[in-house]
Amino acid sequence: xxxxxxxxxRLTAVSLLLCAGIYTLLIRACAQLAPNKGKGMMCTQKxxxxxxxxxxxxxxxxxxxxxxxxVGYNAAGSGGSNKGSNNPGYRAQVQERIDxxxxxxxxxxxxxxxxxxxxxxxxxxxxxxSEAAASVQVKRIAAVxxxxxxVLQQLxxxxxxxxxxxxxxxxxxxxxxxxxxxxxxxx
Length: 187
Prior knowledge:
Number of strands: 5
Distance between the termini: 78 Å
Oligomer: single chain
Structural class: mainly alpha
Largest sheet: 3 strands, antiparallel
Order of helices and strands: HEEHEHHHEEH
């Protein structure tokens, strides 16, 4: 029995060293290779700093709207709604988002509303929207800000991030960066 206790204690010590020590240092070293050394991607506007890799709430008509969040854009509680597409509460929530979008964007048929403008992402904190989601909002923003639609469409194209190596993932647009650029051209 005494021999088993010493073996268990040694195994615990080795596991602790590997899992809490070496693994943590390895992950921290890998983070140093990431942009901004693993501290998140920051964006500054008017003296205020924002995390550009965490979704922000943009609901005003003068801005490109962001993707809805299942967690109210609270990074401390990341997560999806976990409701299936047949859930009546979820369907009502999506219908409410569709109705709100159509009220703020008259003339756009329901079939042309991109799904990422009415459904939340798996984390609830997605900072990106699709190129289609940005383009469908151009007319509304052009009218509110008195800017030519072609200028806004060009802004959307300039902020579109293409798939990795042209193959992996969809094209996407960071809403925060796009809205900061929008504010800068409106001055």
